[in-house]
Amino acid sequence: LAEHLAPLLDRPFAFFAHCAGALPAYETVLRLAARNLPAPACLVVSGQRAPHDAAHDRMLTLTEPELRAEIEAFVRGRGIEPRPDMVDLGLLVLRRDHAAAAAYRRTEAARVDCPVDVVHWQDDTDVTLADLQGWRHYADPVEFRVIEGGHYAFMDAPHALRKLLTRRL
To answer: How far apart are CA 166 and CA 169, in angstroms?
Structure first.
């Protein structure tokens, strides 16, 4: 990914990544540095434990019926009645996402050369503010923000998140 981003790094940029997406975003920042490419103005991670704690995610332990129920509840929470074919597609994507997250290993922190903003969603029952504290070892500065909403509230692009995403650019 870092090589493909290189032509686009001639202006200020930041990375935002939610849940397991925070892991490849973090690794991309490391790879940019390894290739002497520009660093982002910041890395904003949301709803994801630090890389060395990543394997402790509750979602990684769910059975297929439990994952299906999670997808259906998520879709209904957005005001849509889930279609079985779309739930199947979501399940396929989640299984691959979870396989990648479960295989990911980082035993010690490698610091990134940019600030890290860590978002905790106030009503997130899966990832607590305490669960996110491991990010302190990955950059300087690391700042924590609590934003109203549940684990998937980022999808509504709340004002507090938009403000956070643009403040360093």
So the answer is: 5
Beta-carbon contacts of residue 115 (< 8 Å; ≥ 6 apart): 41, 42, 43, 139, 140, 141, 142, 143, 168
Q: Which helix (H) or strand (E) holds 142?
A: strand 142-147
Cα–Cα dist 13/39, whole Å: 8
pTM above 0.85, yes or no: yes
Beta strands 15-18; 43-46: pairing state:
parallel
SS3 at position 63: coil
pLDDT digits (tens, 9 = 90+) for 150-164: 999 999 999 999 999
- Confidence class for position 107, pLDDT limits 50, 70, 90: confident
Q: How far apart are CA 72 and CA 91, in angstroms?
A: 10
What single letter denotes the amino acid at residue 41?
A: A
What fold, for 2-53+107-166?
Rossmann fold (3.40.50)
